[in-house]
Amino acid sequence: MAASEETIKNILKSLEAMKFYSSFYELERESGVKLRNYGKEIDFFYEIVMEGRYDEIQTFITPLLSRSQGIYNKVAFLVKRQEFLEKLESSSDPQLDDLVKILKDIEKVANPNDFNTLCSILSLNKLTDHQDYIDWTLIIGRKLCFQDCVKCLSEIYPIPKVQINEVVGETGNMRSPKSNPAELGKYFENSEEKSETKEEPFNKKVKFWKPVDKSSDDESRRIFIEALDSDEEESIEQEQESEDIGEIKKSKLNIMENFQPEKLREMAKVEDIKPIRCSAFNVSGDYFVLGTNSNSIKVCSLHNIVDELLYNEHQGREQYIDVVFELRKAHLGSVYCIDWARSEKQIASGSNDRSIKVFYCPDFLQIQESQSETLIFEDGAYLNGEGNLPEIKEKILWGHENIVRTVCYNPVDDLTLLSGGIGEGNMFQWNTETGQIVTKYPGHTGSIFHIAAEGSGSYFASVATDKKLKLWDLRTSKSMMTLNGESFAEMNSVCLSNSFTQARAEAKNKLAEMFLKKEERRPQQRNHVAAVGHLDGVVSLWDITAGKLMSKYNYHTADCRSLEFSCDTNWLVSCSFDGSLGFVNMKTGKNYKVEFHDDRVVSIRWHPYLPILLSTSADKTARVLSI
């Protein structure tokens, strides 16, 4: 073996040991050196699996039917499962028809337990919330899919025993062990020095803690832990008592069903030197971003609280928020509005300096794991930081003549951003790549205060001081509906019951009903609803399918500045300048009112899939609330 080939094989071994499968496969492709050879047929199978060529994979495995039905079923299940997970997780807009077709194919070849386990994933917001797929990525999934398939194919194809033994020893679930970069060091110059700095342990500095109220904290934690424990016990009992393959097992991830406003507790808070005006979650729900009157944008990690809620980790510890990254002087003025693109690659903000800033997101998880304190970026340079720091890219969009009050991404296209502002009456459509205005939508005669998007981006809703709720079709560049609220006060905010979050949750629920419950259900025709917050605190509900007013609520006594539906659309939350949060149970119509802030509440956001709320206020805090 040539020295260079031996070196490459050693590097491949290290990459595989550390589960860097993407780099592993790319090195094999570029060098032409393979770590192991399985024979002509299996080498080809390896290539098409790693590249995700599923039509060719099906052609390859079909002849197995004439040789062994059992082996065919096992391999077909493994391949179809990987294809299903890729379509479910790798697309921001998974197509229901495609997913249904694949699940039906899987049901034909899977054993009942494996099929039910796969279907249970539909109850999760993302695949990595499942304990068997914590470290799942597209390339890791393909690699492990191949390894599992080879164990089955070895019964038919001649594979050297030493090779199959290596493969069998590698397979497992998606959990990756902690790897040491120094293992790879002997193949590169100066890597020893670099690995020393990486191996240095650190404790992430806690930035903000919730107020100390031991009686309240203990009670909240007690109720919370009991709820999770009872769910877990129920799940175990069901597994022991019944083997009915159609039975649904309660998951502690379904705690959205247990939400009640009176159970809310403050889990943690973030403080600033000035009022915090706006906020947004990323789609995964791991991070949120804040826009402040101190002209800064703060990206915060919610991992600590999500882990507590989902997995009952960190028992007995205080809950806190990590402020991972701060972009100072993001604008010349206050940050009035903010939105996080559904791809999680961009954040857009608007300000009273009349500009919109598009901020291209670095890898916040990498920053969080590598930095011991908040990483601060200001005037094009880092003010602190350790090691290699990511490049920060920003773009400024100019076109508004006054304060930018709202920005809203198209859920399926980062290049499309909508905005509205004070005194103009036009809604702007921007191309975020060129920074240019694509279209202006005239129609309002007052200031546009808020824009909301339908889940697939097929239409958008806007509200303004002219007391009109308008729906816009971007394909025709025209208003498709106008709902007149002349009898109401000026409109401050709007949200839709079929936004991206709700549409995604509904698609997964439909799949779960089809393949888990095993019972015939009449399709429920649900009208789409728009909720509007008004200047006098009134909350109005509009049936946008029928084009008429449904109801109104008067539980606030001052401006209602923000409102949003929960992911299951069972709850509507609103916030007000009277310092309160209001809730409407959309099934019963009953409303509730709670207070957590010491001043006006400016924005309120639901977590994408958990009973977690994020509120921001003129009291200079952002507070995370949960049951």
Automatic annotation (TrEMBL):
Q: Which CDD domains match?
A: WD40
InterPro entries for the chain? WD40/YVTN_repeat-like_dom_sf, WD40_repeat_dom_sf, WD40_rpt, WDR47
Q: Cite the repeat ranges for WD.
A: 328-359, 441-482, 594-627
Superkingdom of source: Eukaryota
> Is Cell membrane one of the keywords UniProt gives this record?
no
Supply the alphabetized keyword list. WD repeat
PANTHER family named in the record: NEMITIN (NEURONAL ENRICHED MAP INTERACTING PROTEIN) HOMOLOG, WD REPEAT-CONTAINING PROTEIN 47
What name appears for this protein in its UniProt entry?
A: Uncharacterized protein
Name the species this protein comes from. Answer: Stentor coeruleus
